[in-house]
Amino acid sequence: MTPTAAVNMSESKHARPYMPASFITAADRPVPARGIGLAIEPSPGIVAIKGKPEDAAMLAAISGVLGLEPPHTPRALAYGRQRALLWIAPDEWWILTSRDEAPALTAQLQTATAGCFAQIIDQSAAHTGFWLDGHVRNTVLRHLTAFDVDSMPTQTGAGIMLSRTRAHLVQPGIACMLILVGRSHAQWVHRRLREAARPYGLFEHER
Fold first, then answer.
1. Range of the domain at 155
2. N or C end of the chain, less CB within 10 A?
3. For residue 97, how far is the Cα from the chain centroid?
4. What is the dihedral of CA 151, 153, 154, 159, to 10 degrees?
């Protein structure tokens, strides 16, 4: 397959009913006692916000829609009832939500920030997500990145290089990690994650 081919999960052997349907539910998932769980989030809901962090009107407009204020601390992850907000750069944040909600949420934010120096873009179609769960997930990741995953606190995210590919690693809670990559690199990253995880007991969840 070419690197841009769609990721095929037809080889999955184990269905897990607790595979998250959204980002928020994953934070409270039970940690498997053995092995490493791998699942694809084929269409993660991602809405990118760009704007001046000192723009009080923009921040107030975003908070009014989301019920969350964009975090100012690098790598911070803020939670709401149905979504999360991740610091990407001093002037950029990603809303992590369901794919179905992303278009309407984008329109709401564009309307709310009209007149502000802000850009709101639905980037859902440009990304693929991978969930990793299990006590050895950091060990698996160490095979693929030089980033110090062991020192990464919960409720944070970080831009990393994963097997020569740019990725964002998000740790919403103790049970799992989310890896976000460009859709064109999904096939390559999926292959490398499987190779790294297989010696530790790989379970591929079905959606």
1. 23-43+126-204
2. N
3. 9
4. -80
Q: Which of 124, 139, 170 is the last residue of a domain?
A: 124
pTM for this prediction: 0.83
Residue 199 lies in a domain: yes
pLDDT 10s digits, 134-157: 889 999 999 999 999 999 998 899
Examine the fold and report which residue of 124, 159, 194 is the final residue of a domain before the chain moves on: 124
Write down the pLDDT at residue 128.
94
